[in-house]
Amino acid sequence: EPELVGDFGTLMVWADKHRRMKVRANAETPLDCQVARQFGAEGVGLCRTEHMFFDAGRISAVRQMILADDEAGRRTALAKLLPEQRSDFQSIFEVMAGLPVTIRLLDPPLHEFLPHGDAEFADLAEVTGLGVEHLKRRAGELHEFNPMLGHRGCRLGITFPEIYEMQARAIFEAACDVADKSGDAPIPEVMIPLVATRKELEILRALVDRVALEVFAEKGRTLEYLVGTMIELPRAALMAGEIAEEATFFSFGTNDLTQTTLGVSRDDAARFLNPYVEQGIYPRDPFVSLDIEGVGQLVEMAAERGRKTRPGLKLGICGEHGGDPASIAFCEKTGLDYVSASPYRVPIARLAAAQASLG
Ligand code: PEP
Ligand code: MG
Fold this sequence. Notes:
Elements: H1 6-18, E1 22-26, H2 30-38, E2 44-48, H3 56-67, H4 71-79, H5 81-96, E3 100-104, H6 117-128, H7 132-142, H8 154-159, H9 161-181, E4 187-192, H10 198-219, E5 226-231, H11 234-238, H12 240-243, E6 249-252, H13 254-262, H14 270-278, H15 295-309, E7 314-317, H16 325-334, E8 338-341, H17 346-358
Bound molecules: phosphoenolpyruvate (PEP) and magnesium ion.
Organism: Novosphingobium hassiacum
Family: Belongs to the PEP-utilizing enzyme family.
Function: Catalyzes the reversible phosphorylation of pyruvate and phosphate.
């Protein structure tokens, strides 16, 4: 751990002796994973796979998939992504060397993948062989007035199961390949985003389990893995008892949970929340430090209801609050198993977790 030497390193060793909660990192590149490990992360708590889709070629493949005519068209469009995703996950598993890695299936707002302007439609028509008029009509059907409250997260996985199938296959193929090559078998934790109902999770968990069995049969081996869900909508927190029937872990997505509970856009909040905090209307910025009195109650409720259904339910937090000391103290009190923060906040999180345990 070259970054944590000298007195700071010693302090960290002391802190770790007293810490109950594990500390993981939010990371989606091998480099971020490496930094996270150097700072002492004990796993990846959130790999946002949509961050692997900034490349124009990948956006185009997903675009072709969502605008395709039928299942065969969707599968053809996705075929080129499978080896790319497999290699993405393989390099993350390699760096994390047997530590748990939570991979969240795709969660973009759909509009990020829709074509805009005549040139993009013309290009797409050429690649897919579908007419521009057809593509425009299909894109019109998928247009949303409020994409952040629309067709994203698991809803996308229900409408276009092929994309989650491709990702699940890439995860399990990569995990088997890494396990065959090294002694450190990866422990993939497949996470479904934006779940609001048990049924959504039931459908998608069945999909992931089916793909896992297919891959294990092809590879002639099995691996330990988990399927779980984000808890990032108030309904999911309320219905956590039911949702836990389908989940072996919950990860609290407190960014969206704060946004949806307060009815405040996380992207525009600063404009009016700063004066709000100055005037004491909110005691702290709720997007930085968990609104313990409000949103925190949903977290507590979901933890309690989830564990009533499934006593061993693994609980973590992967919203920005997972790197905030006051929120970490709350997580300790609530009995979470781990916090997950951006790699550079891992040392702070280790200290805060130790302080919370001692407290
Ligand atoms: C969250 O909503 O808290 C979360 C971790 O997911 P994202 O920030 O990617 O929406
Ligand atoms: Mg979210």
